Amino acid sequence: MSEHRIHRYDLMKSKMMELDPLSDVRDAIRQTLQSYHRVWIVGGARPPEEDMPVSLGPAPNPYFGWAGYMAFWSIELGSFLNAHTIAGDVVIELAPDVNSNENIPLLVARGWRN
């Protein structure tokens, strides 16, 4: 997203309506990893689940409507990282007995593979 200082719902909505909303993120990750740097992912990246699509397509989705895009973007990012990184480590794991809004994993990805 082009604006990071404040949360702009209009930018989120337009991003959700794109055909491939994570293309710029994937390109930035690829360039970073190919340059021998690391990528840090706050909030984690979920691995793809069996029998679940890895993308919803442009919003609104016929079944999910406007909901679920953040979860599916996490799955899409997890699938991309799983396919193209050499190593990925969970730096901070989810802790038991912590409020789910404050319990956010931190991942780091290293190396690039085609």
Q: Which descriptor suits the 3D outline? A: globular
Largest sheet entry: 3 strands, antiparallel
- In which range does the helix fraction lie? 25-40%
Number of helices: 3
Low-confidence stretches: none
Distance between the termini: 26 Å
Adjacency order of strands in the biggest sheet: 1-3-2
**Fraction in beta strands:** 15-25%
Mean pLDDT: 86
* Radius of gyration over C-alpha positions, nearest whole angstrom: 15 Å
Structural class: alpha+beta
Strand tally, please?
3
SSE sequence, one letter per element: HHEHEE
What does this structure look like?
The chain is α+β, with helices and mostly antiparallel strands. The protein contains 3 helices and 3 strands; from the N terminus they run H-H-E-H-E-E. A 3-stranded antiparallel sheet has the order 1-3-2. It is globular and about 35 Å long.
Describe, in short, the structure shown:
The chain is built from 3 helices and 3 strands; from the N terminus they run ααβαββ. It has about 110 residues and is α+β, with helices and mostly antiparallel strands.
Name some characteristics of this structure.
alpha+beta, 3 helices, 3-stranded antiparallel beta sheet, about 20% strand, globular, 3 strands, about 110 residues, about 30% helix
